[in-house]
């Protein structure tokens, strides 16, 4: 191994920069040259590579986003796209690739593995829906941003005795909504994994009003069949909410752009360094993640086939805590 490359792909996640930094500096310490691929798999297909030394990754550990850029690249989902990418990598003398990203990105990494190119994944997505890592890079920061917003929204909701529907990101996964809802003291949480009819939700909000609560915070996952907008429309059309006035807020991309928390910087640093160490040791076809506080690896084949369920304790306890 003389040259390794690193890319970030899919939705950006706070901590990606810390992971890039760890990959580059660990490779350097092992005498391996590091290359950055610009704009995810699009840059791979275009051969958009940039040599990265230790100084190029200075002053980025505290920054959100990704200095390499990220992209969603439909062409990489095709066999021709993957083959072209491998030709570009081999043409540049690169012997292995570290892929920092979520589910889709690790499917891309697995496609490279299948045609024999050495690749190692690093678990990074704010959605926390990636099998092989209990927690992924960016989750802690996104949760803290959501919590800050929920705390603020609760103050204004109380002043006006309002019910506030707060939608959070997470694609088809309700992890962020569930955890932000519990930690933010929400009156109800709506997630795709445990949906219930809007009538039932309205009853719950009404019940909170009658019990004398000054506000009702409902955290809604973007992937729920009834997201915040649909719920609002439904409540209005069916005149379901009496008592509280209601409003909705969508916490979209704001969850992704924050500076990484200490937890995310440390996680990203550990995962990035481990990925580089293993690549230098000629390992391939694995995802580096964290389980119960320890660094673990999982074959990419299992990662892309796996399904990560939500923690059942949190799922079962959310209603009790909202009383
Ligand atoms: P996040 O969920 O945090 O946004 P992600 O990695 O899941 O991150 P995706 O948009 O699903 O984001 O995937 C990123 C890119 O990975 C896609 O644009 C595509 O280039 C590549 N990719 C996704 N699925 C596959 C696949 N099955 N085969 C090859 N490449 C894939």
Characterise this structure.
- The chain is built from 11 helices and 11 strands.
- The chain is an alpha/beta fold and 323 residues long.
- The strands form 2 sheets. The protein has a 7-stranded mixed beta sheet, with helices on both faces.
- Strand 4 (96-101), helix 4 and strand 5 form a beta-alpha-beta unit.
- Helix 1 (16-29) runs parallel beside helix 9, helix 5 (139-160) packs across helix 6 and helix 6 (175-183) crosses helix 11 (312-321).
- The structure holds adenosine-5'-triphosphate.
- Residues 9-11, 41, 72-73, 76-77, 101-105, 107-108, 111, 125, 127, 171 line the site of adenosine-5'-triphosphate.
Task: Describe this protein with a few key phrases.
alpha/beta; 11 helices; 4-stranded parallel beta sheet; Rossmann fold; 11 strands; binds adenosine-5'-triphosphate; 7-stranded mixed beta sheet
The small-molecule ligands in this entry are: adenosine-5'-triphosphate
Count of DSSP H/I helices: 11
> How many domains?
2
Query: Could you name the CATH topology of the largest domain?
Result: Rossmann fold
Q: What's the Cα radius of gyration?
A: 22 Å
Based on helices, strands and strand pairing, what is the structural class? Answer: alpha/beta
Distance between the termini: 58 Å
Written as H for each helix and E for each strand, in order along the chain, the element string is EHEHEHEHEHEHEHEHEHEEHH
Which shape, going by the Cα principal axes?
elongated
CATH C-level of the largest domain: Alpha Beta
Percent helix, as a range, is 40-55%
How does CATH name the architecture of the largest domain?
3-Layer(aba) Sandwich
Can you tell me the residue ranges where pLDDT is under 50 for at least 5 consecutive residues?
Answer: none
**What's the overall average pLDDT, rounded?**
95
């Amino acid at each position: 191994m003389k040259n390794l490359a690193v890319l970030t792909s899919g939705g950006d996640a706070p901590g990606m920069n810390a992971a890039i930094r760890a990959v580059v500096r660990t490779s350097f310490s092992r005498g391996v040259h590091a290359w950055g691929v610009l704009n995810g798999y699009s840059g791979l297909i275009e051969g958009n590579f940039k040599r990265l030394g230790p100084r190029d990754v200075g002053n980025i550990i505290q920054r959100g986003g990704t200095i390499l850029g990220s992209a969603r690249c439909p062409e990489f989902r095709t066999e021709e796209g993957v083959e072209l990418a491998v030709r570009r990598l081999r043409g540049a003398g690169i012997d292995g690739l570290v892929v920092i990203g979520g589910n889709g990105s690790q499917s891309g990494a697995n496609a490279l593995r299948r045609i024999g190119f050495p690749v190692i994944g690093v678990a990074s997505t704010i959605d926390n829906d990636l099998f092989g890592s209990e927690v992924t890079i960016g989750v802690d920061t996104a949760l803290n941003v959501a919590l800050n917003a929920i705390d603020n929204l609760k103050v204004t909701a109380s002043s006006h005795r309002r019910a506030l529907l707060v939608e959070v990101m997470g694609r088809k996964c309700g992890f962020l909504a569930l955890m932000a809802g519990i930690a933010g003291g929400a009156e109800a949480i709506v997630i795709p994994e445990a949906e219930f009819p809007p009538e039932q939700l309205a009853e719950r909000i009404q019940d909170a009003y009658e019990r004398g609560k000054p506000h009702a915070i409902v955290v809604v996952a973007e992937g729920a069949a009834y997201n915040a907008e649909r719920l609002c429309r439904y409540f209005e059309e069916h005149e379901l909410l009496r008592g509280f006035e209601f409003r909705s807020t969508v916490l979209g991309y704001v969850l992704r752009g924050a500076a990484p928390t200490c937890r995310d910087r440390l996680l990203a640093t550990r995962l990035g360094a481990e990925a580089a160490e293993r690549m230098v040791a000629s390992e391939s076809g694995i995802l580096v993640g964290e389980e119960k506080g320890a660094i673990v690896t999982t074959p990419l084949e299992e990662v892309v086939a796996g399904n990560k369920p939500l923690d059942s304790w949190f799922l079962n306890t959310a209603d009790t805590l909202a009383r």
